[in-house]
Amino acid sequence: KVGWYNAVLQPAFHLPYPDDTLAFVVLSTPSMFDKALKPFVNKERLKIIRDPVDQCIAHHLSRVKEKFPDQRVDVMFDYEMLPSRKPKFLAQTAAHVAGAAYYYQRKDVKLDPWGKKKIFGVCIHPKYGGWFAIRGLLLFPAIQVPFLEQPAPVDCVSTEEKRIELLEQFNFHWQDGRYRDIIEVKERYSEEQKAYFATPPAERLRLLGLSQ
After folding, report:
1. Considering only Cβ atoms within 10 Å of each terminal Cβ, which end of the chain, N or C, has fewer?
2. Residue ranges per domain, the chain?
3. Has the keyword DNA-binding been applied to this entry (predicted)?
4. How confident is the model over 50-81, as pLDDT tens digits?
5. Is residue 42 a contact partner of residue 34, using CB atoms and an 8 Å limit?
6. How many CB atoms lie within 10 A of CB 124?
7. Could you tell me which of 51, 42, 63, 53 has the C-alpha nearest to residue 134?
């Protein structure tokens, strides 16, 4: 429910919908690369003009909207910004309040070792660890769900030591991706997918056989 999200954020970040409005957080799992992105690129090769992943997600979410012709469905993407340069929605907070993934933050560590350093939080999924992404939000303004019960996200990094290790790795060594394996995972990105996301965005089109 939108109210779960708004309840944990300052008013500047609130979504402008009634508290009982139904929303879905959209995640992409490791298999998205082979099952969605590559077929999309093969089919839409000539129409890809910006980030292929963003266009692929937009394509699939527009198809979801088509399934509800009688409903208004508002879509927000993780990369969209407001004119104020604030993100349209805070993806990790949305995933946490929806019970999709646990958003580990500095406040989850009792004995904070970082002093004045800025420490960013990170979401961990109980099945995919850090090998997933939060892609968007689907909102159904006409559907109110006062009866919906809030599921708690799975606290899969439960020890103080592991949480410190996770935040250290994410903040200071994120390039090596070790933070993604902070727990035992069921599935991770393929080597091809890792190479794709490790490539600077400007060069990714070439990797997919698309030239600018």
Report:
1. C
2. 2-207
3. no
4. 789 999 999 999 999 999 999 999 999 999 99
5. no
6. 27
7. 53
pTM of this prediction?
0.92
Q: Using the 8-state DSSP alphabet, how is residue 21 labeled? A: E
Name the band, by pLDDT with cuts 50, 70 and 90, for residue 202: confident
**Could you give the CA distance from residue 155 to residue 103 in angstroms, rounded to a whole number?**
9
* Rounded alpha-carbon distances, angstroms, from residue 183 to 110, 125, 152, 212: 20, 9, 18, 38
> What's the pLDDT at 48?
73
Gap between the Cα atoms of 108 and 169, Å rounded = 15
Q: Helix H segments across the chain?
A: 2-7, 32, 38-44, 52-66, 91-97, 160-172, 191-198, 201-207
Smallest CA-to-CA distance from 88 within 103, 100, 74, 78 is with 78
8 vs 6: CA distance, rounded Å: 6
pLDDT tens profile 16-46: 999 999 999 999 999 999 999 999 988 887 7
